[in-house]
Amino acid sequence: MTKQHWIKIGYGAGIGVGIIIVTAFVFSQIIFPVFLGRPKDVEVPNVVGSGYLQAKRTLGESKLHVVIRDSVYSEDIAIDCVVDQKPAAGEMVKHDGTVYLIVSRGSKHVTIPNVIGMDYHQAYLTLRGSGLRTVISDSLYSETYPANSVMRITPHFGTKILKESRVRLQLSRGARPAPDSSNVYQGSWF
Questions:
Q1: Which of 58, 75, 134, 189 has its CA at a distance of 20 to 30 angstroms from the CA of residue 156?
Q2: Spatial CA neighbour of 42 closest among 71, 65, 74
Q3: pLDDT for 147-162, tens place per residue?
Q4: Cα angle at 40 between 36 and 46, to 5 degrees?
Q5: Candidate CATH numbers 3.20.20.140, 3.30.70.240, 3.30.10.20, 3.40.50.300; the one for domain 42-106
Q6: How far apart are CA 174 and CA 80, in angstroms?
Q7: Angle at 50 between CA 46 and CA 53, to 5 degrees
Q8: First vs last C-alpha separation in the chain
Q9: Alpha-carbon dihedral of residues 17, 21, 26, 27, nearest 10 degrees?
């Protein structure tokens, strides 16, 4: 077979595939909808204020797709709840259309939990779980607190601060060790 023969076969295959694609498009977009009827437009339900999973379920029941467009901090709307939607509630969209959501990240601020008396590891996990970072600022002997437990926290617990802020911890070294009697001078130098 010559090169020209293969070129003719390639053109024929390309034209055949093109005809199949055009035919499928015409049937799916023109002929079937005319005979079977087009799906009606769908009214977009209101999901603002509801949780993301509930909003996704509600929109799915209306045969609409969900895309999270953005997430924002909100002092008024709880974390993972819908702040805004596009298209707005009540608008008509095509069947299988898409609704874009803006979801709340929750408050920018967090209240510092009380970790005084906790073991450092437990305090670290508690503060990290609240969206805060920790820094050990000092460690001192204490008769009251066991070794490696939190004695003081700055800023003070109960204070509202921005998420990801640093909280300074002062840890206990435990009780002051008794002086070693073998190193104590007990006699004269001469």
A1: 75
A2: 65
A3: 999 999 999 999 999 9
A4: 155
A5: 3.30.10.20
A6: 43
A7: 105
A8: 117
A9: 90
**Dihedral (CA of 56, 59, 65, 70) sign:** negative
Give the type of residue at 155.
P
Three-class secondary structure assignment of 82-141: EEEEECCCCCEECCCCEEEEEEEEECCEEECCCCCCCEHHHHHHHHHHCCCEEEEEEEEE
pLDDT at 185 exceeding the cut of 70: no
How far apart are alpha carbons 187 and 190 in whole angstroms? 9
Q: Output the pTM of the full model.
A: 0.54
Pick the CATH number of 110-174 from 2.60.40.2550, 3.30.10.20, 3.40.50.10090, 3.40.50.300: 3.30.10.20
Q: What is the mean pLDDT of residues 40-46?
A: 90
**In this structure, are strands 82-86 and 160-162 parallel, antiparallel, or unpaired?**
unpaired
Phi/psi of residue 147, nearest 5 degrees: -55, 140
